[in-house]
Amino acid sequence: MILELDCGNTFIKWRLLGGGKATVGGVVDSDQALIEVVREQAVQLRACRLVSVRSDEETAQLISLLEQAFAVECRAARSAVSLSGVRNGYEQYERLGLDRWLAVVGAYQLSGKAALVIDLGTAVTSDFVGADGGHQGGFICPGMPLMRTQLRTHTRRTRYDSDEAAKALEGLVPGRATAEAVERGCLLMLRGFVSGQVAMAEELLGSDFDVFLTGGDAPLVMDVIPGARVVPDLVFIGLAIACPID
């Protein structure tokens, strides 16, 4: 089995590959929780590869834990000027977030033509890649979790629980309660951003391009872009290209 990890600042997305296919996976909120859940699978690991947006020190600590726990070599994705036909568009290529970079590489591998890649997680990122594989840059803005957290933190009377939040998103008419007003307002901002990115892609990339959606909140905007390709494991596709394992 191969263990694949996408290590964010808050959560770690993991999955196990067997025979070239994902067999099981999930999300954990700590290094120790990751060790425990992988142990519960009772499988023999032959390799591990990961992408991390954490600090070098935090990433090294996780790799050390994994190698000690499972006696397996861990390979970490690194920044690159180019990879699999895609050219990094940042002036300082190493400053482009590795998750964004691998998502772009994965999208271009699947598409083979111009693409807009939107990752909807805690933060929302968008990236544009031309038909020739040239990464043309992108944008970063707060996602739903960050927007609601900021409102709850800095507005004293903005208080509601997760059940109210979920119920509030059952419609998009003007809210008649705080949870409805906040959740629907944030969602409309998110959907507006996505629509704007598609319009910009039409200017930058021409009429023939694919749109890829990934990240936990992708289902919230699927209907905004008819024909968009929802690929939850897009970063993992890029990771396999960056860190091939025989």
TrEMBL record:
* Catalytic residue list: D99
**GO molecular-function term, one example from the UniProt record:** pantothenate kinase activity
- Where located? Cytoplasm
Pathway connected to this protein: Cofactor biosynthesis; coenzyme A biosynthesis; CoA from (R)-pantothenate: step 1/5
Q: How many and how are cofactors bound here?
A: A monovalent cation. Ammonium or potassium.
**SUPFAM superfamilies given in the database record:** Actin-like ATPase domain
Q: Where does substrate bind?
A: Y90, G97, L98, D99, R100, T178
Report which reactions are catalysed by this protein: (R)-pantothenate + ATP = (R)-4'-phosphopantothenate + ADP + H(+)
Q: NCBIfam families of this UniProt entry?
A: baf (TIGR00671), PRK13322.1-2 (NF009857), PRK13322.1-4 (NF009859)
PANTHER family named in the record: TYPE III PANTOTHENATE KINASE (PTHR34265)
Q: How does it assemble?
A: Homodimer.
Please describe what this protein does: Catalyzes the phosphorylation of pantothenate (Pan), the first step in CoA biosynthesis.
Protein's name in the database: Type III pantothenate kinase
